[in-house]
Design a protein that fits this description.
By secondary structure, the protein is α/β, with parallel strands linked by helices. It is built from six helices and 14 strands. It starts with 11 loop residues before the first helix and ends with a strand. The structure holds 3-methylcatechol (MBD) and fe (iii) ion.
């Protein structure tokens, strides 16, 4: 158990602090600053904001409210949550626009690398009394040419049936509902897990304050997070949603796509549900 986590960790500020720490240790390729690119992107971003201020005749009271709100986002460590919910989906759309293979979706703030891995199939780490309908999630990883990709890696992580992610909420085993499968010689993989429930993003902090002020809701539909890697291929980071699930049409993070909806069916042996979903990766 990650018993160093406390009740605080389930709050927006606690979740935010954990997500911020994770993001800061995440390895990113070092890049040199392209001054022309910064000037173009930052310049256009400011121009877009200036236009909004004109369009809506923004007042000083509103400008000050924005300032205090931005200060709170920082103080609560909510930048990873806020950006992934309201901005990441457009970056994902732009970056993956030319892919022929499986559709991607946003990574979100709760991925942790290094989950336990097995070959071919695995049961995700879970509690003895893990709530939720058992789910067998299986498939095959192929290239765009249709050839199976043995040695592909499929990572799966998701919230529990109460909407909590391990490492971002207290009282959960360290790797609860997080795992990795190395595909078999036919590129096949299988996970035994439980179906997650719709998920309310932590809303007792600055992000929730904005959502409430705007009269929006804080829900994401029930979802599985996945990353699929194979050498010589572009990896895919994506999410899968459940057919007919609540909030599929009103995801606060705008990360649902028609191709990403799965429809598990009851298993013949009565042991929960099962679904097959294949991944197709683009070559470099
Ligand atoms: C999540 O679980 C999530 O997937 C995203 C994108 C944002 C907040 C919480
Ligand atoms: Fe999520």
């Amino acid at each position: 158990m990650t018993d160093q986590l406390t009740e605080f960790d389930a709050t927006a500020a606690g979740t935010g602090a954990n997500a911020t720490k994770m993001f800061q240790v995440k390895t990113r390729e070092a890049t040199t600053v392209d001054h022309a690119r910064v000037a173009a992107v930052a310049g256009d971003a400011f121009a877009a904001l200036h236009k909004v201020i004109h369009q809506h005749r923004v007042t000083y009271a509103e400008y000050d409210a924005l300032k205090s709100w931005l200060i709170r986002v920082g103080e609560d460590g909510e930048w990873p949550l806020f950006l992934d919910v309201f901005v990441e989906h457009v970056v994902e759309e732009v970056v993956n626009a030319d892919r022929a293979g499986s559709k991607g979706s946003i990574e979100g703030p709760f991925y942790i690398p290094g989950a336990p891995s097995e070959v071919g199939s695995t049961t995700l780490p879970m509690r003895d009394d893990e709530p939720g309908t058992p789910l067998l999630f299986q498939g095959q990883v192929r290239g765009v040419d249709g050839a199976p990709l043995p040695g592909a890696t499929v990572e799966l992580w998701h919230a529990d049936a109460n909407g909590f992610y391990s490492r971002f909420a207290p009282g959960l085993p360290e790797w609860n509902l997080r795992g990795v499968v190395l595909a078999d010689p036919e590129g096949r993989f299988a996970f035994r897990t439980v179906k997650p429930a719709p998920y309310q993003i932590p809303h007792d902090g600055a992000t929730g304050q904005l959502i409430e002020a705007a009269g929006w809701h804080a829900w994401r539909p029930a979802h599985l997070h996945l990353k699929v890697f194979a050498s010589g291929h572009h990896s895919v980071t994506t999410q899968l949603y459940f057919d007919g699930g609540d909030y599929n049409d009103s995801d606060i993070a705008s990360a649902v796509k028609p191709d990403l909806i799965i429809a598990p069916t009851p298993r013949a042996d009565g042991a929960g549900e099962e679904v097959t979903y294949d991944f197709v990766l683009d070559r470099f």
